[in-house]
What we know:
Elements: E1 7-11, E2 18-23, E3 41-47, H1 50-62, E4 68-74, H2 83-95, E5 103-108, H3 110-122, E6 129-133, H4 136-142, E7 147-152, E8 155-162, E9 167-171, H5 180-197, H6 199-213, H7 217-237, H8 252-262, H9 269-286, H10 292-304, E10 311-312, H11 319-327, E11 340-343, E12 349-352, H12 356-366, E13 367-368
Parallel strand pairs: 2-9, 3-4, 3-5, 5-6, 6-9, 10-13
Antiparallel strand pairs: 1-2, 7-8, 11-12
Helix pairs in contact: 2-3, 4-5, 4-7, 5-6, 5-7, 5-9, 6-7, 8-9, 8-11, 9-10, 9-12, 11-12
Amino acid sequence: MNSPDLQTVAIDLADRSYSIAIRGSLFDNPLSYVELPGAHSALIVTNAVVGPLYAERLQKALAPRYAQVVTVVLPDGETFKTWESLNLIFDALLSHGCDRKTVLFALGGGVVGDMTGFAAASYMRGVPFVQVPTTLLAQVDSSVGGKTAINHPLGKNMIGAFYQPLKVICDLDTLKTLPQRELSAGLAEVIKYGPIADMDFLAWIEAHMDAILAREPAALAHIVRRSCEIKAWVVGQDERESGLRAILNFGHTFGHAIEAGLGYGQWLHGEAVGCGMVMAAQLSLRLGLVDVFFVNRLTHLIQQAGLPVKGPRLRPQDNAGRYLELMRLDKKSEAGEIKFVLIDGPGRACLQAAPDDLVRKVIDQCCVD
Length: 369
Ligand code: NAD
Ligand code: GLY
């Protein structure tokens, strides 16, 4: 199959607008970076898995533009999305005399991207940064839209900032080295866009799941582009989540409880979101917002993507109570009342509270020992 042509998706945010470039052979091509502002230094932030695969090639691509290109390698994984890792970025910036024009490059998945963005938002009160996402999840979701954060032991992504990148470079070739489990995790965020915004896209994913799992370039190009378009449409209307943007958190309220309750890194973020979408769909069903055929269709697709559809028990007794405790810490909660993203018709989402007894029934039904 021929490799797909370059595609670009625009994020329209007035003076914070930028573009997402999507194709193979992009991240190590100096032409990808020509329109970035000039600076003396660039700092590549990566991790111990992605660094050895790609950092040297990015370093070479940036060398013509920056007199100094430094690479900082963070420990890998969600458990390291912490203050300590963030400080390693500040240590590197300060020890290399990086000034306020220094451009940061996030080379990795969502963990590296979220931490690099937060470091860029706060170093010298804000320096430019570029996202070079190397997981499917990061290409279709986390690198776009400017949410940056680290975790707190009591809650996920609790400390962070809205801060937009200058550009996003989605190099589809980097997905070739991604473990299959990580590809499936990324598919959770791809599938998400169907029920909340575009049922035609959901049907397309259903029809092309084999090609996607086989990483056919045209299939990957399509899901990355369409996901970015939908995210751009949402973020363009509600950058700081005062309303609409919350729909992008479909499945995340239950999912974040799974991640925090089991301990970060036990389940992948995308796995928790996949299972969380099943729970949120079941809750929508119990509230009379969707029918059982819709819930079964979505559950089947999530399973087809290689994702869990049954949640873990977070403690032996009163498991549902533990989920509720964790979900009350969700960023969408108001005065301790949990707000769920629910589906109120195929392709349409809403934010609403639900009675605890219904939520408990859903959790009891959806969890296994
Ligand atoms: P991740 O960053 O941990 O990457 C997954 C794993 O794949 C890691 O081990 C990583 O080292 C490895 N990896 C990355 N690229 C690779 C490649 N090309 N080849 C081989 N291995 C590779 O996880 P993720 O799923 O990318 O991101 C999850 C994070 O994103 C979570 O912390 C979540 O909260 C965050 N997130 C943020 C947003 C947002 O809007 N900012 C949205 C969704 C998720
Ligand atoms: N991934 C959720 C958001 O960007 O709002």
